[in-house]
Amino acid sequence: MAVPPADPVLCVKDIAAMLLQKPAKWPSSIYYRELSAVVSRLRSNVVHERRKSLHADNHYDMANFLFSTARCNLDYMQLYETNNIVVSSRKPSIVHLLSTLSQHIGRYEGQSTEALDILSQLTGLDLEPVPSTSVVLHQGVIPLLLRDPITVFIQLYLNLPPQLSAGYLERIISAVYNLTYVQALLHVSCKFNEDERQSWISRYSAESHSASAHHGRSSQSAHAAYKHLSSSSSGTRAEGRTSHPEMSSRQASLSSTFSRKSCVEGGTRSSPHTSGHLLHTIIKQLTTIGFYPSNDSTTSFLECSVWSPQSVESFLQNSCLPFLEFAATLRQHVYNSPLPARPDIPQSAPDGSSCSPSADPVNQDCQKWFRTLCTYLGLIKEDTASDSPSEQALNWLDQNPHSIVKGWLNFVMTCKNRPVVMELLTSPVKWYMPRLLELPTQYDTIFQHYRNMTCPQCSQPPVAPSICLICGSFVCFKEVCCLAHSGVTHSKQCGSGTSVILDINASIVAIIRGKRATLWGSVYLDEHGEEDRDLKRGKPLYLCRERYMMLEQQWLSHNFDYVCKRWIFHSDQL
Asked: I need a surface site. Which of 170, 434, 459, 572 has the fewest CB within 10 A?
């Protein structure tokens, strides 16, 4: 693997050159050839089970399919490590899978050019692609601020050679982190009401003017001192003396001293590249074109009145954590570098309520984990400390990042459907771990609610009323008259052939997996810890949290094939 240059601009240009390289020769290993066959079978399964038109000749659809395959498997590994899920002794081969997907991506025309265009937008550098003899039509170019950062990261990584140096990966992570950070700022600005946005503009406009005036006076003082020092050294040389080799370093030290002094006197907010000034740029430009809605009836007064720089920093860290954890998972497996243990950080509610500024802005565990991830990924040096680590992790290649942010915003403004854009910008930016339904403690609650429910297809009460523990749908289990609501049909629609069904009249959980089915057991036990199958004894049943957690972990880890031993072929009769 080549060693990346120390200059970040040269490093990005090396990445651009690698993106335009022709794919290497397919490895001769039998293992890679088998993985190639696996990718072909995955495409066939998607076409057959989901009934989607995914043709191998359509390079755009196939590339998106390979990107989603990589993300699903990396999310799969991250789910295990984050929640300490016990899996079987199978050794994960995520590195070989990513290498195979990368080889496949390189054979689809136009993907490297699209990845190069994304890299140019992220860094602000003019990376001209090599002229191509063919014409590739891009199907719907999405503005960068509306794209998922993790998907952008996967697209860049898979278009690069598999044997990529860690330094190049850190540079890609840094560029995508800048995008994630600006998206979080844009999300914050959409949560502000009109008064808060105007207050933020006035506050940082005044600071910008004072910082510019102070910077001008400091520059004049530094220039006068530098001119005086230069004239003294030239006078010394005029007298026939040889200049000391430390003179140039002394001049540079004096210039940097004035720069540091101006930064200290002006404070951290006087810097034009802080999160406050970037947020000011976003709000000012979007307000000018009337992007924000005039009425703020969707936001409560309490939520709008407590935003502060501390709560904004907390929101930025929470918004950037999913991308950092995903990038750390990829680096851990690709480069076999141990990742520090994740602290027990409670997840916010799916409705995004904990993302409001009224929540406690100081979360020591979350802030420590954020700094640990940034240090692990090379975004922050280990010996540095700051009150705003999310801002400290930024690394812009352009000296004026405001121009890059304005370019991203102008691209968003080309979208004609403003309500859809607002919905995308204000929707929760965090994905949550899949879970089974929250069941009541007493089984009698479920039994009384579902025992007289009728089938929505034939309006008759089924023999075995059941519910899907994944989505909560009512299922006609063991019925053949209503194929649209049978257990087998629902398993294909809900879980691609896998479903977890609770039989109401028997208190038993059944697992459907493809063409097979099995009885898992009951998650409701009596006061002595025993099952009551088919409810023959009539004892009160209570939810066993340990069993239900075990069922959920086996569902998350896809371990039903290894745990359940008594399978039958259902012949589409369930």
From this structure: 459
